[in-house]
Amino acid sequence: MRNVSVEAAPEPDPVDARLGARLAGLRAERGWSLGELAERSGISRSTLSRAERAEISPTASLLNRLCHVYERTMSQLLSEVEAEPAPLVRVAEQPVWEDRTSGFVRRSVSPPAPGLRGELVEGRLAAGADIAYDRPPVPGLEQHIWVLAGALEVTARDIEHHLETGDCLRLRVWGPTRFRCAGRDEVRYALAVVLP
Question: 175: how many CB neighbours lie within 10 A of its CB?
Fold first, then answer.
């Protein structure tokens, strides 16, 4: 008789596990089936199921679609999976989320607080990274994008804005947007988000 070793599935990332549970909870609160959510979000049932079970780490684009359906900003959703909010969050304790597929790293700088309308986020895009969002999580969302290092191209309402270090762009987001690292090095930017 041959010994057959079965490799255990890797443990999901703790943030992905909490995020998956919250996504499942939001769907349950609305009484939606996976099929209904798939129709509303344009995301396949299998992908939604795998994200809720933390079998995959959701991409920024996928989370953006779900935020739109659930009428939340990404920071609001991510703050719901963190521990009890504090008024001060030290840099080492600020939640970092990474979309490994696109080369996007997002750090929630502001202490999470449900009910507040503004938040501050640090974004980093690797050289060549290009992220497209098909819609805002909340229509009319106000964004202030301040480039801290590198070059960033932001497209909104079919207008492309080329930003260099120190430049700041303010816009209201109603439709598709695109963020692209325009230089040979990563771009780092601060994003102030204000709910309408």
Answer: 12
